[in-house]
Write a structure and sequence with these properties.
alpha/beta, Rossmann fold, 5-stranded parallel β-sheet
């Protein structure tokens, strides 16, 4: 894992270039966890992140969720590496205080859990495309843009 963190930082440090597309991507929690926990589709997720440098957004909710999961697995230093190498290169965003009511609306309308509702509201507000491997987003793909990495 550490090799990827260093390679990711190097690529974000100037080797990777921004693409000309103006589309911005909200990276769902599962994309980073796939890499951090060295899961089956980690290479696909890494490639997407590197290829889309400069267009990536992470919700503060995902940042906290990643911390909860890594700490639960006693991977404290991995979380610190993630923070040090990734966060300076990706915009961290949150929904506005007056938009929290929207979580319930989307959860009920599209049968989403809290996590997915949070991502959907943020994507809706900031006009972002959600990048995920979570099939639950199939239910909302006519409302917000979704890119599945499968």
């Amino acid at each position: 894992m550490g090799g990827w963190i260093k390679g990711f930082k190097r690529k974000f440090g100037g080797i990777a270039t921004q693409s000309k597309s103006m589309e911005k991507y909200l990276i769902d929690t599962n994309i980073f966890l796939e890499i951090l926990l060295e899961q089956e589709k980690k290479e696909k997720c890494k490639s997407f992140l590197v290829e889309n440098y400069g267009k990536l957004v992470l919700s503060d909710f995902s940042l906290h969720s990643i911390g909860v999961i890594l700490f639960r697995n006693h991977k404290y230093s991995l979380y610190n590496s993630f923070i040090n190498d990734v966060i300076p290169n990706i915009k961290v965003a949150s929904i506005e205080k007056n938009r929290y009511y929207r979580l319930e609306e989307l959860a009920v309308r599209f049968n989403l859990d809290f996590d997915d509702s949070f991502q959907a509201v943020l994507a809706e507000d900031l006009k972002l495309t959600v990048v995920t491997m979570d099939k639950d987003f199939e239910r909302i793909k006519k409302h917000i843009k979704i890119k599945f990495l499968n």
